[in-house]
Amino acid sequence: MTWYTALVLAAAAERLAELVVARRNTRWSLARGGVESGRGHYPAMVALHTALLAGCLAEVHLADRPFPPVVGWAMVAAVVAAQALRWWCIRTLGPRWNTRVIVVPGLPRVTGGPYRWLSHPNYVAVAAEGLALPLVHGAWVTALVFTTLNTALMAVRIRCEDEALDRLPAVDARA
Fold first, then answer.
1. Torsion angle (degrees, nearest 10) of CA 21, 22, 23, 27
2. What residue ranges of the chain have pLDDT lower than 70?
3. Do residues 161 and 101 touch, judged by C-beta distance below 8 A?
């Protein structure tokens, strides 16, 4: 169970690294006239993602969930794949990537990298991680609760993001 705690703490450290990047990118976007949308749902998103990490540890420790080897190792692979996709998104969007919805007027919509195939690949990574990270060590309640709440939150978030992005010109800006 110690290695699982380390895995969850590594996911938390990754989230903190994202926040450092997001803060830098927020400054970049705002300096270029960026407009933020969806401030109202952002605190709920932060709380849900924090609860995911806490829930993983709490459920595994308090309910004494076992490590299911076949499912567990498959879920470790899914967590790694989700992180790779997330950082591909971050790299592709460059200074435009953010944990907030901030659009810089005049910049074209990015259509390179994973955005060639999906409108919101970062949310695929979030959904995959939110399901896989708890299931690495059998925390199925956390996986179920996070996935249910995240689905509702993503409906709001994606609608907000699409409305903001619809104001951008449709030009290929491959990274």
1. 100
2. 1, 169-175
3. yes
For residue 90, count CB atoms less than 10 angstroms from its CB and return exposed for 0-12, middle for 13-18, buried for 19 or more: buried
Rounded to whole angstroms, the Cα distance separating 9 from 129 reads: 14
The C-alpha atoms of residue 132 and residue 71 are separated, in whole angstroms, by 9
pTM summary value = 0.90
Dihedral Cα 71, 73, 77, 83, nearest 10 deg = 90
Contact 72, 134 (CB under 8 A): no
Specify the residue for token string 């926040």. Answer: 19
- Residues composing the chain: 175
pLDDT of residue 173: 46
Q: What is the pLDDT of residue 26?
A: 98
Give the model's pLDDT for residue 148.
Answer: 98
Helices (DSSP H) in the chain: which residue ranges? Answer: 2-31, 42-62, 69-93, 121-135, 140-165
Q: Residue 135 CB: number of other CB atoms within 10 A?
A: 23
Contacts of residue 131, Cβ cutoff 8 Å, sequence gap at least 6: 78, 143, 146, 147
